[in-house]
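Quick one - inputs below.
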Amino acid sequence: MPKPIGRFDSDSVRASWDVAADAYAQGQASGRDYYRYEFFGPEHITLCGDVDGLTVLDLGCGSGYFAREMALAGASVTAVDISPRMLEHARRIEAETPLGITYLESDAASIGGVVPDGHFDLVTSCMALQDMPDVPGVLREARRTVRDEGRLVVSIVHPCTDTPFREWERDDSGGKRWLCIDRYFERGPVEYPWKGWAYEFRTPSFHATLEDWFDWFLSAGFSLSALKEPRPSKAALVKRPELEDASRVAYYLLLEFTAGPPINEAR
Ligand SMILES: C[S@@+](CC[C@H](N)C(=O)[O-])C[C@H]1O[C@@H](n2cnc3c(N)ncnc32)[C@H](O)[C@@H]1O
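Output:
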């Protein structure tokens, strides 16, 4: 269950992810992060389409999972993260298995000095935007750095089910009966506990409504071209029966946009 928090700015976000980084990177390397590997990750990759030969910018790259997927598919990748410790993991993996990825340490809302205008065919962000303190600023940077008619492909937690109150009602044997969600319209920063990883850690996130998200994307100059609510496949459910809850409730939202003029200019 998330908890409301008072402080949510670049410094507090950087500090939290620095603490989380070792367990997060280890969880990815060990396969612990099976929600990612079994369904939302592959669906995000599919939504990006054929990236061979494209220039790709990955915002909030963490230890580099998605940046590597793009590079393995033939893209020339630049990846940005605010957490130095996360980037240490990403760079270590790049040194061990070079894919030509350029990693930059920056707040994604202020990459002006390091990333040129209109340079990228595709800007992407895998499960990171909801963790950023200034999403409108990040989307303005995404629009500035992507070429006209280029694409933005993002995955975020689903704002309709990832609410400030969220708890599974359980039966006597601990099975999940139904998900109770409430306080959808209470926008604001919350903190999530991550349990069952190498150590327990907490990371901050911002709950916004679906309407907020679309205001942000459209005002930055993006128009929607695809929306997906991924579910685990039958094969994934056989491999990982624990994913059964994700076949009943949409946990994630995947969105593809095309870059055009900011909506205020277009009108
Ligand atoms: C849930 S992790 C996702 C990492 C990676 N995209 C993945 O799929 O594994 C969220 C990441 O966003 C980064 N982040 C949060 N706020 C940021 C910001 N303002 N600018 C850049 N990165 C940020 C965190 O440091 C963290 O690495």
